[in-house]
Specification:
alpha/beta, six-stranded parallel β-sheet, four-stranded parallel β-sheet, 11 helices
């Protein structure tokens, strides 16, 4: 997710280190050439100028400008307070690098309200390779010209369609008319993962990867639920069929019955002009940058903030409970 940003930082001669928090991040995905800092003490000794975070929080005892670069697009998920989680301000970041007008405008309003952070519309660095030449195509099968359906699902039990559509996907894959690629959120229940892995055949491949961009390139159509990965797919000007999607927007073809999945997929494979026009309008709002240079814009916005300083920002609220929780989670109690 952050490797495109790492690439442009290193290309200008600067150094990058990684700090992985929690057990949900697999360090095996790091390359031998990527340096990992193992403790908070190592992070503090390294003294980063900027910390790029694809998550929701970052401890204030880590040095450097804190830059929020998001772990996905706004999928409309609500938090326990009844607010859109994507726009929840947790008093951690100095700069939010937004993806397009749909997120920039709300964050601009929040910046004016709180006064504790700045906003720059940069695009999402994660997508840079998708808009550049040379992206690997490991999921293409030479001589197989069947349409490719990518099925993705979120891990949340209340939102995931994976358990519900299992039998339908099993039946459709056995027909052999299409080639299926299946990929789930890393937090997906192992029981569900095992069921879909058992479906593997010449018609269906289950994929576990830390880089979904080649998957998105390989497919003609996506079947999904409310996962934000569908937005990444749409940005290629490719259609998405959703099952019980919460938003039910015109750029998606949403179905609520299992028997409607197959005809919906058949319909979008024909790329209806009215649907494709809706997708284009939506993409212009969500992520208008198609030049593969979002990482450069993020770095430029960060450099500007480092150069100008943050003295004109209001002090962030202490939010002691949240920061005590982070200290406990990281096992770091030095002040």
């Amino acid at each position: 997710m952050l490797r495109p940003l790492q690439a442009v930082i290193q290309a200008r001669g600067d150094e990058v280190c990684w700090f992985l928090e929690g057990d949900e991040v697999d360090p095996a995905f790091l390359k031998p050439t990527e340096k990992r800092l193992l403790t908070i003490e190592e992070v503090k000794c390294w003294k980063p100028d900027a910390v790029f975070v694809p998550g929701n929080v970052v401890p204030r005892f880590i040095p450097g400008i804190k830059v929020g670069v998001f772990h996905g697009f706004n999928a409309g998920k609500m938090n326990h307070r009844g607010r859109e989680d994507h726009f929840e301000i947790r008093d951690c970041f100095d700069l939010y690098c937004t993806q397009g007008p749909a997120t920039t405008l709300p964050f601009d309003r929040l910046a004016e309200k709180f006064g504790t952070f700045k906003v720059a519309e940069t695009g999402w660095p994660t997508l840079d390779p998708m808009f550049q030449q040379g992206l690997e195509r490991p999921y293409d099968v030479e001589g197989d010209d069947r349409p490719v359906i990518l099925f993705c699902s979120t891990f949340s039990r209340s939102l995931s369609c994976a358990p519900v559509v299992y039998e339908k996907i099993k039946a459709l894959s056995e027909q052999g008319n299409w080639r299926w690629l299946v990929q789930f959120h890393p937090k997906m229940s192992q029981g569900i993962v095992d069921k879909y892995k058992a479906l593997e055949s010449d018609n269906l491949t289950f994929i576990e990867t830390d880089n979904v961009l080649p998957l998105l390139k390989a497919a003609d159509v996506m079947l999904c639920d409310t996962s934000s990965i569908l937005i990444m797919f749409l940005l290629q000007a490719k259609p998405v069929v959703t099952f019980n999607n919460q938003t039910n927007r015109s750029h998606l073809v949403n179905v609520e019955a299992l028997d409607d999945i197959e005809p919906a997929l058949e319909r979008v494979l024909s790329r209806p002009p009215e649907l494709m026009a809706e997708i284009e309008r939506y993409c212009d709002d969500i992520h208008p940058f198609r030049d593969g240079k979002s990482s450069e814009r993020v770095l430029a916005a960060t450099d500007e903030l480092i150069e100008n300083g943050i003295d004109d920002l209001k002090p962030k609220p202490m939010n002691l409970l949240r920061h005590l929780k982070m200290r406990k989670k990281l096992g770091y109690w030095k002040f």
